[in-house]
Design goal:
Elements (H helix, E strand, L loop, with lengths): L9 H15 L1 H4 L6 E4 L2 E3 L1 H4 L12 H9 L9 E3 L25 E2 L9 E2 L10 H37 L5 E3 H25 L5 H21 L4 H4 L1 E3 L2 H14 L2 H11 L7 H10 L2 H15 L3 H8 L4 H9 L5 H24 L11 H8 L6 H27 L2
Antiparallel strand pairs: 1-2, 1-3, 4-5, 6-7
Helix pairs in contact: 1-5, 1-17, 5-9, 5-11, 5-12, 5-15, 5-17, 6-7, 9-12, 10-11, 12-15, 15-16, 15-17, 16-17
């Protein structure tokens, strides 16, 4: 890890460190509710509740519930109140007069607020959303999207690339019955994943569909294993894994990722168009890069002497792959991971900017802030902060990716 001490990387590491701190501390740095308040001798933490509960849920205490319904968090006469540095929540709708300042310049204070702490540090956009609050929330969305989407892509690419590179077209064998039943189960799993949730759950989403798809495939795979007792179904067949996986990778890489994700996002209009669906789409279209690098490394590693020796002493193929060969082929994948996180963040911002992101994150992500800035391009404080945040994050990740590639 000597590359972490490189002075040229310090700006990039500091940038990512600040980004992670802001993302993890989002509810403490930006919150429209007091982090702590004292009312008539009772102590409450309404702002911290949003960390583990939906902020829109009603409060059991009648005073807090009344404050929330009337949206008087910043106007109520508390005994003691401690607010966040940015005393506004991202995407806070103008539900009362104290949040209806439109296109306010940085440092503005609403006339109904007498305290200077209720200041819009970076101003407001055309809909009245606080830009600083959106910037803080956008940091969490960026970190979550980049890490989770690339984590999904990394997992898929690692498994598929390992299978393609280690076994090639002549070493991956499976029972005939299990292969046939899995192939039969794929269209049936797709059918049930699309139709069953709509008739069973009041609010179906892609997580239910994914779970049903996996369960049906597992059932058909288990049935195929049971039928291996019959000689015909127990016959071992060779699967051209490298050919199949590489053709799949070519199909995915030949389609522009942004256009494909926009097409799928347009199909998910409504309740299913959430940030989780966007993360899944970005991850599913980002795995080929990881798979190609892992495959190339394993083509080299599988010819080394220690792999031949492991096969000679009778170690199982899966054990040789995951315990001995794959750990020595991961270094190039780390480089792809850094670049992939940057691409995922940029893709999510692009989708939000074009209006295909999570509609519940309006004013709460960097892309949605830039989308609001289109209506008033002369208001620099709306477009500059999110644009600068995206640029600095992408540059930092690319710097780290280049440093990793130079030290392979």
């Amino acid at each position: 890890m000597a590359w972490l001490k490189d002075k040229k990387l310090r700006p990039a590491l500091w940038t990512l460190g600040i980004l992670l701190f802001v993302a993890l501390s989002k509810d403490i740095l930006s919150n429209g509710r007091p982090l702590y308040c004292k009312i008539r001798g009772e102590h409450f933490f309404p702002g911290l509740r949003s960390i583990w509960k939906d902020a829109s849920l009603p409060y059991r205490h009648p005073v807090l519930d009344s404050i929330q319904q009337r949206f008087l968090w910043r106007q109520f006469d508390y005994d003691i109140a401690v607010f966040a540095p940015v005393p506004f929540s991202a995407g806070e709708l103008p539900m009362s007069p104290d949040t209806t300042i439109l296109q306010a310049p940085p440092g503005s204070i609403h006339p109904s607020h007498t305290a200077r702490k209720f200041r819009h540090w970076l101003g407001t956009d055309v809909t009245g959303y606080d830009v600083a609050a959106g910037l803080v929330s956008g940091a969490r969305i960026a970190v979550m999207t980049g890490a989770m989407a690339m984590g999904l892509a990394f997992g898929l690419g690692l498994v598929l690339g390992a299978i393609a590179g280690f076994w090639g077209d002549d070493r991956f064998r499976t029972a005939r019955g299990q292969l046939w039943f899995v192939l039969i189960g794929i269209p049936l799993a797709w059918f049930y994943a699309q139709t069953f949730p709509a008739y069973t759950f009041s609010k179906p989403n892609w997580l239910y569909s994914l779970g049903i798809f996996a369960v049906v495939i597992a059932l058909f795979g288990g049935l195929g294993r049971l039928l291996q007792r019959i000689p015909f179904f127990s016959h071992q067949v060779v699967v051209p894994a490298d050919l199949i996986i590489m053709r799949m990778a070519e199909v995915f890489t030949s389609i522009p990722g942004l256009l494909a994700i926009i097409a799928f996002a347009a199909m998910l209009r409504g309740q299913t168009q959430t940030i989780w669906a966007m993360i899944a789409l970005i991850g599913l279209f980002s795995w080929p890069g990881v798979a190609l690098f892992v495959r190339a490394e394993l083509l080299r590693v599988r010819a080394l002497d220690y792999v031949t020796a492991a096969r000679g002493i009778g170690l199982p193929e899966w054990q040789i792959l995951f315990r001995h060969a794959l750990p020595n082929a991961l270094r190039p994948a780390y480089t792809i991971f850094a670049f992939g996180v940057a691409s995922a963040i940029l893709l999510e911002a692009s989708l939000s900017f074009l209006g295909y992101g999570d509609q519940n994150l309006h004013g709460a992500s960097w892309g949605s802030l830039l989308r609001n800035a289109r209506e008033s391009p002369h208001l620099w404080w709306i477009s500059l902060p999110p644009g600068l945040a995206i640029c600095l994050t992408i540059l930092a990740l690319h710097s780290i990716g280049e440093a990793l590639s130079e030290r392979r």
